[in-house]
Amino acid sequence: MRIVITDELVEVRLSLWQKVVGLMKDIRLPRSEISDAEVVQDPLCEVMSSGLKIGLRLPWLYYVARTIQLDQAFVVQRGLPALGFSVTNESPLRRVLLSSTEAQELAMLLQSP
Questions:
Q1: What is the pLDDT of residues 76-88, one digit of tens each?
Q2: Fewest CB within a 10 Å sphere: which of 13, 26, 90, 96?
Q3: Across the strands, what pairs with 40?
Q4: For 12-40, what is the mean pLDDT?
Q5: φ/ψ bin of 79: left (φ > 0), alpha (ψ from -120 to 50), beta (otherwise)
Q6: C-alpha span between 100 and 102 (Å, rounded)
Q7: What is the domain extent for residue 43?
Q8: Backbone torsions φ then ψ of 108, nearest 5 degrees
Q9: Model confidence at 113: pLDDT above 90
Q10: How far, rounded to the nearest angstrom, does the alpha carbon of residue 9 sit from its chain's CA centroid?
Q11: Helix or strand or coil: residue 59?
Q12: HSE-up of residue 103 (Cα within 13 Å, Cβ side)
């Protein structure tokens, strides 16, 4: 997975295997529709408490999944902090959580105007 942030766009490019087992596609969102960017130190706890999910689920290890309502997307793994942000558009997607070694830098980048 690669997270690409430009002045206009936030793009999450999933690898082929993540798309297949996670039943997801790449996520492309206008940056103007992103809010509440934060670093989540223990993303697996948040994922485990989010209700039913579809996709790859290895409890306490790795998730490439969405909630049944399709309002949350997760690509997280144990031992890595995650970039979390809210989505304010009209689609069902409301929250995204992505593990990354660069979570702190990405969150600061999204918080800057």
A1: 999 999 999 999 9
A2: 90
A3: 82
A4: 96
A5: left
A6: 5
A7: 2-111
A8: -65, -35
A9: no
A10: 15
A11: coil
A12: 23
For the chain, how many structural domains are there in total?
1
Task: Name the pairing type of β-strands 27-30 and 34-40.
Answer: unpaired
Closest CA to 43 of 18, 21, 62: 62
Q: Are 33 and 87 in contact (CB under 8 A)?
A: yes
- Tell me which residue of 91, 96, 2 sits closest to 43, measured CA to CA: 96
* pTM strictly above 0.85: yes
101: how many CB neighbours lie within 10 A of its CB?
9
The two three-digit tokens of residue 107, written as one number? 């969150």
Q: Which residue has the tokens 């992505």?
A: 98
SS3 state at 53: strand
The C-alpha atoms of residue 17 and residue 87 are separated, in whole angstroms, by 25
Contact 94, 87 (CB under 8 A): yes
Question: What are the structure tokens assigned to 112, written together?
Answer: 């800057």
SS3 content of the chain, % helix, strand, coil (to 5): 20, 45, 35
